Amino acid sequence: MTQGGTNLPRVGGYNQAVVLDAIRTAGPVSRVELAPLTGLTSQTVSNVVRRLLDAGLITEAGQAPSSGGKRRTLLSARADGAYAVGVQLDPDAAVVAVVDLAGTVQGTRRVRLTDPGDPAAVVAKIAAAARRLTARVPVDPARLLGTGIATPGPIDGTAGEVVLPPNFPGWGRVPLLEMFGEATGMPVAMDNDATVAAIGERWIGGRDRAGSFLFVYLGTGIGAGIVLNNTVLHGDTSNAGEFGHMSVAPGKRVCHCGGTACLGPYVSPAAVVADLVERHGRPAADRLGLEGTPESVHADWQRLCGAARRGEPVAVRAVREAAALIGRAARGAVALLDVSRVVLGGDALRGIEELMCEEIAAAVNSTSVARAIRPVTVEKSVIGEAVGAVGAASLILHGTYAPGWRMLTER
Amino acid sequence: MTQGGTNLPRVGGYNQAVVLDAIRTAGPVSRVELAPLTGLTSQTVSNVVRRLLDAGLITEAGQAPSSGGKRRTLLSARADGAYAVGVQLDPDAAVVAVVDLAGTVQGTRRVRLTDPGDPAAVVAKIAAAARRLTARVPVDPARLLGTGIATPGPIDGTAGEVVLPPNFPGWGRVPLLEMFGEATGMPVAMDNDATVAAIGERWIGGRDRAGSFLFVYLGTGIGAGIVLNNTVLHGDTSNAGEFGHMSVAPGKRVCHCGGTACLGPYVSPAAVVADLVERHGRPAADRLGLEGTPESVHADWQRLCGAARRGEPVAVRAVREAAALIGRAARGAVALLDVSRVVLGGDALRGIEELMCEEIAAAVNSTSVARAIRPVTVEKSVIGEAVGAVGAASLILHGTYAPGWRMLTER
Description:
Two copies of one chain form a homodimer.
Chain A: H1 8-26, E1 29-30, H2 31-38, H3 42-54, E2 58-63, E3 73-77, E4 83-89, E5 93-100, E6 105-112, H4 119-136, E7 144-151, E8 155-156, E9 161-163, E10 173-174, H5 176-184, E11 188-192, H6 193-205, E12 213-218, E13 222-228, E14 231-232, H7 264-267, H8 269-288, H9 297-310, H10 313-337, E15 341-345, H11 353-364, H12 368-372, E16 377-380, H13 387-401
Parallel strand pairs in A: 4-7, 7-11, 12-15, 15-16
Antiparallel strand pairs in A: 1-3, 2-3, 4-5, 5-6, 8-9, 9-10, 12-13, 13-14
Helix pairs in contact in A: 1-3, 2-3, 4-5, 6-13, 8-9, 8-10, 9-10, 10-11
């Protein structure tokens, strides 16, 4: 309950992470510049840099132009210094990616999950795909640090389990962390998908994602990741950011959580498709190519988004109405957290980023507080579609090296 | 943008704060026990303790029972080691309190603000009351560290100004920090009232308020303070916790911010009184003793709360309906922040704490997430009515000594 002080023995590892993060985000950079960037003495910087060079995590990359005195050697992070596998788990498919220390995706596979009701089969299939992918890329096994999993919530962070995930019918408590550890034989870290995406965005976004932001993630459902003062908010039970349960729409629609005012049941792709079909009937749905069955949600949503991008009024209206509700929830979240940046991402956002950003920006900037004190920027992810998988890999890469992030658990 | 490392020269002051906080919350405590509590070496603890003793902030208070070896001297914080003035500013009145280092209120004054439209007059009146109070208590001037102000928001944290506070008609941008500094000749810290109350609650609450919680503050309006991992969330512009703008009640009522779904306009004391009078008419209002004029809001609200406490159905219903809406917003905030504790406070809560806690607890615990993963505790403030003034004083006392809190500005 008391915050800890700092003794010298603990400073080494922390300082190593601080220096690596500074080189990664500000590099190429000289030792002299690192001291003010990190708040460390030149002597400490020098020692830490030597250790990072020895570990192959950074490299000397040329020299800075002379400014009269001795020329300065520049340091860069080595992208090939470390790798991790990132897995984004969704009910219909998993995306598996191999990501390097710079956050670049080196290879990716989409794994269709034909039997999402069987957790063991899901894990085995993904682990096999990851093995094939790391062999193909290829990656030096000694530099492959582990596997990060982005899973739909809710999760029990202490136990490393997902608990009754609403989009995986039939799953009770599933010890995913342990199962992936056994299947891959590597260290595994896990967190909920929206939080993972926010971590990835912070990791890759550099200066553009410094400080605090709300990451709104639209996939099978809607969620959020929260970054405050450069640190992701995990929450008491690792379930922070359950944005879909913001109470913004009092009505008759009952959320899977039991609530009647939750945002989620109004703005998920499945709900927006169903609402459009119900409101406009079969002719309109046929014109847009929507089948309107539970199995066709993924394809229907892509067609709906495509139609919205082309400016089809029915589709544009459906997207705008969902965005306005998301904007209302985002306005509340922004008021609560006092962040001046909202980032949108997730694979269900493809093609409608601009429409969504515009509508949500209007909602969060409609208040007098926004006008007088805090205009809010609304932007799409700098990573794009792969944000979940890149974020999952960063649970391993960033969690190991960068300060301030907490790995959920490590085998 | 890069997080700073830790060099030795900066560790001293931070460690002093860590040790004082540990002694204050865990004391009486021996030097030997402090090492594991703070994560510091015995040698560092010993040095820091000597400095705190010299400064008169802690005292040696007896000896621990012998457990075979050498008997251990116990250390306690000295309540009279330091004092601060706390001011809670409300439109109709300000509460001024003198608080010691233990958080005990040594004296208090209520200052009626007959001309709330004139910021200079308000500041002068409060400063004069503070001078009379510190002379009367009395406090050693050398140990009086400054004045903390809890003000209704929104505020401009960088400038130390309140900006268009809705409950102070006619105020534009008012540089309260500077004005109080000039009027008192002392260091001044300022923050919005709900955040200040949350800081005070964390400060006084010890183990019961460790970790993370949402503090819902009901005064003239409704707001919230957010404590995450023992640290208060200030937000990008020092306006975190604008709970009254959570969008939970889509309807025709327009908030002062311009929004149409904000919680605030439905649950402020003025709104609840007006709604009751409108719904049940004059006879019911007369029976409860409600005048129903803008000037009588404070007295009307006290009568309404008194009636609710006695079980008058009309009043109970009014309080329960407001609480249910607050609960709906709290459910969203809890889902977003993943905190497992909600604390209620503020002077408008007097007499209805139990009713409010019950209704809000039901709302936040109605979801499957709450049942499966995170039951949420809802409790009233451990400080009670003075939470605003004690919290304001703690901006000075806690901001100076305890780690993790940020003073808004200091003269």
